[in-house]
Amino acid sequence: MRRIFEQKQSRIIVLCIVMILFLVPGQVVRAETSLSELQSSTYLYLQMIKEGRMDAAEAILAKVERLTLDEEIAKIRNGPYDLNMLIQETRYTLEDEEATREERYNRALTVALYVDAHENQVDPLWDVWRGHIIELIDQTLSTEKPVSNHSLQKIYQLYESILPAMHTSLEKNDMMEVEVQQYALLKQLAERPNENRAQVLLELANVLENIQPQEKKGLTEEPEFIWLMWTVGGLIVITLIYVGWRKYRGESEQEVKSRERDS
Q: Which residues cross the membrane (predicted)?
């Protein structure tokens, strides 16, 4: 009887471990699928805005809004920037009849880069736009003295578009430098064109050139993997304790019965 009981306990342990190994990765895959669908939808919305197809953009934006309600991508809504807030700002701009196509495009770009930064921790798309901003700064400084309000506003709008995405990828010290440059640009936009704008843009270009996205975590560092290992380990420990207790109890009862027979 004891052998049969121990065999059943072993089967239960194996079955529980197999169920966890299948269920937890399945949840991770569903989350990645939802995020990938959200990412492709934001890319498509950005393309529709670029082409001026506002009716199609409206339909895609509605899909994006529905996707953000999925609990599997809750971490996006709870990130350093609130995704729902970014999408809401995008909708306001889309529905604003006075908004320019460039303003709508920059809002759409903000959402697309933010989602992409969560999906692609290695070589995120905002890194490409960082290079584009540096090139735009170099071009502006070589053709304008002092820098005009129009050019400074264009640089700031692109810079503002990549800020939420940068928040997901940069170390705290790098992000502080990035925010300092944002305040410096805003201060210059509030003033008349002057020679100081060139220095501000040079400092911005220098900061953008030196920052680097964080490296992607290894599999053993991912929260899902750590949670899986803790769960499996905890289940094994609890089951072994239970099996040991039942075995001890069975032996104790058998010893008592043996003594009763001997007496």
A: 225-245
Q: pTM for this one?
A: 0.70
Detail the DSSP E strand segments found in 95-219. Answer: none
Tell me if 188 sits within 8 A of 200, measured CB to CB.
Answer: yes
Task: List own/partner pairs for 81-90 with CB under 8 A and 24 or more apart.
Answer: 81/114, 81/164, 81/167, 83/111, 83/114, 83/115, 86/110, 86/111, 86/114, 86/164, 87/61, 87/111, 90/61
Q: Which of 249, 219, 140 is nearest to 185 (CA)?
A: 140
Q: Using CA atoms, how far apart are residues 200 and 185, in angstroms rounded to an integer?
A: 7
pLDDT digits 0-9 by tens, 4-38: 545 555 565 555 555 554 444 444 444 456 788 88
Block residue for tokens 């949840």: 27
